[in-house]
Design a protein that fits this description.
By secondary structure, the chain is α/β, with parallel strands linked by helices. Helix content is about 45%, strand content about 15%. It has an eight-stranded mixed sheet. Helix 1 runs parallel beside helix 2, helix 6 packs across helix 13 and helix 11 packs parallel to helix 13. The longest helix is centred in the middle third of the chain and has 25 residues.
């Protein structure tokens, strides 16, 4: 998705001129970003979800003090930015964040950032070719990441064994999940997948669990989220709108173990959610709610499915995601498979068409026999009389 920039430099001055939005915390930057701003951040190994959020917020360009890809694993964020057509520059150094004040008018050209026509930072331009090269090198680093992942997984199992295997600590929902299909959607950038399963949801009385701002995508698809799972971490600006949360039958808030104060925050917003203390990621909590709630099948919309997508998660979310999928097992189906596996419920008119086709085939078969031919001959005067009566009505 492309957004118009707020201003362009005069034709005799090359590059892109726009206000700079500067912040070391990417989540805070995104909440303040306006269409046409140049995002100046410090985010190593930019993940796909964050990159998509930058695109959706309307960034005109992205300047990163850190490497977009460090080589530890093939992260997917840079590809999202490049595919969206955004100018991307990385490795400009942390000094750039100090040299450019938030909201200042800057100019970006050929990997160089200018403030008041003075060069304040320079880095590497990241294009499609650079992304391919980075990904090829990063795949070599996957072995070390998998080793780290194994250690994190063992630690996560020790902490969350009861939750994973028995559902201990999960809140009780008002929404009935038992023996019903459940669709879990977590993000804003999978509208096509959500559209594919909309018919499945409507025809099968499926429960829709939206994770965080995924509730906005559900609403845009003219569906209704029965359950919304949100994370207590983050600013209020990063949370879904109160009216969307109030429209859901259940709101579940994921809280870090041992932390407090979340109840008061949501009460001030006029919400009365239920809380779950866990180190699992919000979308993994949604899957566990569906699984231990007795869902007949779970359809995942926008959930990581490949090893690259899994490694693109921040720790400890990687261990959480992997182990949750082991716990859920064969119940989980990717939304992209639903159109292949599900062609829709058989309706009354479908049966009527089949019945008429069968009767027509039977009539043709009977008409070819001597008895059938005699029937046709005997019925011919009746049909002629009936046709004359019909013509008389309209004459």
């Amino acid at each position: 998705m492309r957004f118009p920039v707020r201003s362009r430099t005069p034709s005799d001055v090359p590059g892109l001129s726009a206000p700079a939005r500067v912040d070391r915390r990417t989540s805070s930057l995104i909440s303040r970003l306006r269409p046409g701003d140049i995002a100046v951040l410090d985010h190593i190994d930019l993940d796909r979800v964050t990159a998509q959020a930058l695109v959706e917020a309307g960034a005109a360009a992205v300047v990163n003090a850190a490497p977009m890809t460090s080589g530890r694993y093939p992260n997917l964020g840079p590809e999202v930015l490049v595919d969206a057509g955004l100018p991307v520059v990385d490795r400009v150094g942390s000094e750039a964040l100090s040299a450019v004040r938030d909201g200042a008018a800057v100019r970006l050209h050929d990997g160089e950032l200018y403030l008041d026509e003075q060069l304040v930072a320079a880095g590497r331009q990241v294009d499609a070719e650079a992304v391919r090269d980075d990904m090829a090198e990063a795949r070599i680093g996957m072995a070390a990441q998998l080793d780290s992942f194994t250690r994190n997984s063992l630690e996560f199992v020790r902490r969350e064994e009861a939750l994973l295997l028995e559902g201990e600590g999960l809140p009780t929902l008002r929404t009935r999940l038992s023996k019903r299909p459940v669709v879990v959607t977590r993000s804003l950038d999978h509208d096509d997948e959500l559209a594919r399963v909309a018919r499945f949801v409507r025809e099968n009385d499926a429960v829709l669990i939206a994770v965080h701002r995924g509730v906005e995508a559900v609403t845009a698809a003219r569906l209704k989220a029965d359950v919304v799972v949100v994370d207590a971490r983050g600013d209020d600006a990063e949370q879904p709108a109160d009216k969307l949360l109030k429209a859901a039958k259940d709101v579940v808030v994921r809280v870090d173990p041992g932390s407090g104060g979340a109840a008061e925050t949501f009460e001030r917003r006029g919400l009365r959610p239920v809380f779950c203390q866990t180190g699992a990621a919000p979308e993994d909590l949604a899957l566990l709610l569906a699984h231990h709630g007795g869902a007949s099948v779970i359809v995942g919309v926008g959930l990581p499915a490949t090893i690259e997508e899994l490694l693109d998660r921040r720790h400890p979310a990687l261990a959480s995601t992997y182990l949750t999928r082991l716990a859920v097992g064969e119940k989980l189906v990717d939304a992209r498979a639903v159109p292949v596996l599900y062609s829709g419920r058989v309706r009354a008119w479908h049966l009527m068409v089949v019945l008429l086709a069968g009767l027509l085939a039977l009539a043709v078969a009977v008409a070819t026999t001597p008895v059938g031919q005699q029937w046709v001959h005997d019925a011919e005067p009746l049909f002629r009389s009936l046709l004359d009566d019909i013509q008389g009505l309209f004459s």
